[in-house]
Fold these 3 entries.
Entry 1:
Amino acid sequence: MEQPIRKSFTQNRFFPFEIVYKDTKNPQNELPDHFHEWYEIVYVYKGKGTFFIDQSIQFMNEGDLFILPGNVIHYAIPDKENPVTSTAIFFDPLMVSNQKYSNHYSYLQIFDECVNSKNFRYVLNLEQRNNIVKHLDNLYTEITQKKLGYIQAITIILQSMLLYSSRSILQTPKKGEDSENSLPNWFKKVLDHIELNFTNQVVDLVSLSEYAEISPEHLSRVFKKMTGMNVSEYITSKKILLAKERLIHTNDTVETVAKGCGFNSMPHFHRTFRKYFGMTPSNYRKR
């Protein structure tokens, strides 16, 4: 298996923020498949495309806002004739952690809602579009001009944008069913089956093709086209991301975590984890 592709960030890690401003996507320069620990917001100015996000395929259209929590597998497919132009911001959630006087509100509320609903797309009205664009423009101005206090300014603007999102955009109905209905029924069944059983060693290309009653060749071709990954890469990514969460949020031993996530060989688990995160599971937990 090829080493997984992860978004790399060039900004100083002491200031965990990055923006890709008004970038026109095409199949040649879009990152094939990726996940990252930073949170991401994508606003679409114009163009069309599709977005694979954590089991779902969702359309990309003018005025759409995508909310992507960390460690969610996602892959954008721009339209060849009318590619998407968008701005994406990436940030470490610690950047907007609550102060001691704001314990009853989280700036990450909209991300939590998207995780719970497994729907990551909002279709904005004109007022919401103008507000988000203004915030993005201000973020870009601050990070490019780097005037006195620009780090503090970026943090404040980002918090303001997230607060606005919670107050206004979070109340906007999310859209996803139109995209889901464009998928073949067998493909949706495959994604659901993987989600329920990806820690089981028998979930592979052959077993999935038998489950969906299609040929392995057809499944492999469509899966790669829609997700940017082959079946084995996708399943391994799901396993390793689950392992990462359990290392952080449980006291289970590394061996227990590995077995619980479908890794029966500890050397294989260590090699795979190092490929994804650049360190051993034990070191990751300590960090």
Entry 2:
Amino acid sequence: MREMSSTVGGTRLAYWCSSAVDRPAASRTVLLLHGLNADHDGLLTLTRLWPDTRVVSPDLPGFGRSGPLAGAHCLENYARVLDGFCAALDLRDVTVVGHSLGASIALALASAYPRRVRELVLISPVSSRNGPDTWPVRAYYGLGAALPARAARFWFLSRAAVYLSDRSMFTTADRRVRRRILESDYDTAARAEVRAIVEIYRSIRDTPMAAVAGRIPAPTVVVGGERDRLASPAALAALHRHLARSELHVVPRAGHLWSVEEPRAATRVILSALGRLAGAAVADRAG
């Protein structure tokens, strides 16, 4: 995969795309949307294991090598730019796969532009649910969002902040995997826009995600970890109930970074669920 770029609405998006040589007979096109403080590379390990799949993986605006949005970094604006990005690349009928922040943006994209999305995979989507299990996370982001820009950058993006954040989310005991994730996150945090973090936090906090989910017709896989404090099983279940066609999978002993820690296991869960949802859709049409 090689780096390319596209400018949409004044925002330059860097992206990586598997070529026809890499995937000569792709039956599925996947748009990968990474999580907060990550970049295009965050989920590529996962989709490298998917057969017959063309992958398009952008750095979201404000992260990686992409420029920031001209306006607010809110769910609505992210969805609008990504729809324009798909139009520029002539990406139709796509499978949108998002993790964490990327899953929240994927929800907004599928809700606002339903004809663009063939199927949806939400890995640990961060929602606006207000349960007590989310209080520490909301307090952390709420305090950071109230700080001046320089202090907020240290709060969210310093090596100490990245280390403590990742350590709190690890569930794997594999030190090599932990080290790989940490080194990647140190690198991506150094390039992130703190304005994007503050503004998208406020947007997710203020967005009624249940209403957003209720407008999505695409078959959807919702998957998360039993030990995830950012996207708790209760929050996932609440989101699942508002989706028209979805499967919910809560992985025992897994945390927020499970799909990166265990990409083979995540691939099995996701592809099996997509297959069942596709089969159910065919049966419905036949009936």
Entry 3:
Amino acid sequence: MKEFVNYILQFGNLNTQQIDFIVGKTKKLVLKKEEYFSEAGKIPRYVGFILKGVVRFCYYNNKGEEITHSFIDENNFVSDQQRFEAQVVASEYIQAVTDCEFIIFSKKDWDEISNTIVGWDTITGLILKNCLLKTIERRSPLVSEDATTRYLSFIHQFPGLLSRVPLSHIASYLGITQQSLSRIRKNIR
């Protein structure tokens, strides 16, 4: 819980009473590897904070191929925020890549925090902005770099994920086949 509190305090000031109120609204969620935090075709139920594990955001393209577009690991928020807030059906999946533990907030509790704590919307807005900037920062180079450079960038950006994430998901994230990824890995050893 300390990691969660420290994370949100990076984005604004909260007193002990406010922190206790927020923490009081949390519930724990445990997902096994390959279970879903959120699924396409369903309304997202939670905003989560990852205590342990890695999730990926993925979707199926028009050819039916599974595409991974981002990974999120410990001490970060995870949600399909726009669809969660609007309570509309998601178009992508958020899947546990490893066994995961989360602190979660239901829509009712999230709204209650927002309606009770002055400045909470500002804090969550800054958190969301930070998450979006990180995602853009990580994804932008993937458009212009060759496959080897993309892989080396992945290792640099996600040093702890290589041993925790299946190569098929990494290849999908990098926009290459698993065979190409294997060749790249062999050539840089």
